[in-house]
């Protein structure tokens, strides 16, 4: 008994070993599949992470473009200062029409020297730092994000002084960029073309760790102080090198994040864009498991096919041959396998078995004939020996009788 049969008796049969051989032949296919899936997973992850970095860069550029476009708009409005410092329905309507042309604008307004809004609304903005800085003169002021008094949402204010023809400051014209509208609009537009980026989240932060805006924001995290969170601590350590890292988000969901710092002057804010790790690899993992399932089904069918083929082509013919060999060894003759169904090697073996049995029968018949001839010769020889013995005995008696007669005659003569 071989060591293989000793330690694996259930695999001692030819059929089991054939099935095992088929199973082993499927192992390289499975290994190639697993390697391809892992490589595809890596490439998919790299592509998605690169897209995250691209989205961060695009939002950064869009923010700078929004500030530049706002500056251009305010510069054009400042060319006619008297028009915007005279409260009238026409002034409100004109600024409202301009605001509609910019999806991210929360408001366009003009303010007098007392901080009173002349067009668009009737609230006082003198308490705003950017208004005071703008009234002090100079270039365009980009202020810190604040909660809009009208929209009640976080806005990025941009203001420009209005000068009279004599160079005196008459007031301020300003624009409020709604950060929530800006972030949601840009996030949708930049992730719309990629199925793998459907669940991207973007967050704008104050440098002190306060959440300005989150998109989407189902948990209403605006205003949340998260300075000690893992996400913010990672953010402030990677804004300069723009690394992409896996971190738990504010909702405790593991995500891959890309980071950046955006804004100008006093308006420096931080940006993080993240994609759930599960979503990142969801599509490629689904393809892998589907392919693996197909391979498992195909492997099972191949193994079953190998099992039945081995049963019909190997085990049954070999069992039949073994049974006939046992019958021949027990003394039965006249046995033939005939036409065997199976592998060509088994057919050759069956043909040679029939030839062997025929030769054995012929040999035994010759042996029997020779034995019979020897027996007959022996019997004939014994009969001849017996006849010769009888003849010798008869001659011997005759010789004795003659000798006795001669002796008698000699005695008579002597007397």
Characteristics of this structure?
single chain; alpha+beta; 6-stranded antiparallel sheet; 5-stranded antiparallel sheet
How many strands, which pairing sense, and closed or not: the largest β-sheet? 6 strands, antiparallel
Q: Encode the helix/strand succession as letters.
A: HHHHEEHEEEEHEEHEEEHHH
Q: Judging from the principal axes of the Cα atoms, what is the shape?
A: rod-shaped
Strand content: 15-25%
Report the count of strand segments.
11
How many individual helices? 10
CA-CA gap between termini = 100 Å
Mean pLDDT: 82
Low-confidence stretches: none
Q: How would you describe the oligomerization state of the chains in this entry? A: single chain
Our Rg estimate from Cα atoms comes to 55 Å
Helix content: 55-70%
Q: Which structural category fits the helices and strands? A: alpha+beta
Report on the structure:
The protein is built from ten helices and eleven strands. By secondary structure, it is of the alpha+beta class. Strands 1, 2, 3, 4, 5 and 6 form a six-stranded antiparallel sheet that branches. A hairpin with a 5-residue loop joins β5 (154-163) and β6 (169-178). The model has no long low-confidence stretch (mean pLDDT 82).
């Amino acid at each position: 008994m071989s060591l293989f049969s000793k330690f694996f008796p259930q695999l001692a049969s030819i059929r089991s070993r054939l099935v095992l051989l088929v199973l082993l032949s499927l192992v390289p296919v499975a290994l190639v599949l697993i390697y391809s899936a892992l490589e595809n997973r890596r490439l998919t992850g790299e592509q998605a992470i690169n897209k995250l970095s691209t989205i961060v860069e695009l939002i950064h550029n869009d923010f700078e473009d929004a500030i530049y476009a706002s500056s251009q708009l305010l510069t054009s409005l400042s060319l006619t200062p008297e028009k915007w410092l005279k409260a009238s329905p026409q002034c409100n309507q004109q600024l409202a029409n301009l605001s509609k042309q910019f999806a991210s604008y929360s408001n366009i307004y003009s303010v007098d020297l007392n901080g009173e809004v002349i067009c668009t609304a009737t609230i006082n903005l003198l308490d705003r730092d950017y208004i005071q800085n703008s009234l002090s003169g100079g270039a365009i002021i980009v202020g810190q994000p604040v909660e809009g008094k009208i929209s009640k949402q976080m806005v990025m204010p941009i203001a420009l002084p209005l000068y009279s023809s004599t160079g005196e400051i008459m007031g301020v014209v300003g624009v409020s960029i709604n950060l929530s509208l800006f972030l949601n609009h840009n996030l949708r537009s930049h992730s719309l073309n990629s199925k793998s980026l459907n669940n991207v989240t973007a967050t704008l932060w104050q440098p002190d760790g306060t959440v300005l805006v989150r998109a989407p924001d189902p948990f209403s995290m605006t205003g949340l102080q998260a300075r000690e969170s893992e996400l913010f601590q990672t953010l402030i350590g990677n804004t300069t090198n723009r690394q992409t890292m896996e971190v738990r988000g504010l909702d405790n969901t593991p995500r891959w994040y890309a980071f950046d710092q955006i804004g100008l002057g006093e308006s420096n804010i931080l940006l993080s864009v993240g994609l759930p790790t599960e979503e990142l690899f969801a599509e490629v993992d689904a393809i892998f498991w589907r392919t693996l399932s197909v391979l498992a089904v195909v492997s099972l069918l191949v193994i079953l096919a190998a099992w039945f083929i081995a049963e019909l082509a190997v085990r049954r013919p070999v069992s039949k041959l073994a049974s006939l060999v046992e019958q021949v060894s027990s003394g039965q003759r006249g046995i033939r396998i005939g036409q065997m169904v199976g592998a060509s090697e088994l057919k050759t073996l069956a043909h040679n078995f029939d030839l062997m049995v025929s030769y054995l029968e012929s040999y035994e018949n010759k042996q029997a004939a020779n034995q019979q001839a020897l027996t007959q010769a022996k019997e004939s020889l014994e009969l001849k020996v017996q006849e010769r013995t009888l003849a010798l005995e008869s001659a011997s008696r005759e010789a004795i009788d003659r000798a006795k007669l001669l002796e008698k005659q000699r005695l008579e003569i002597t007397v």
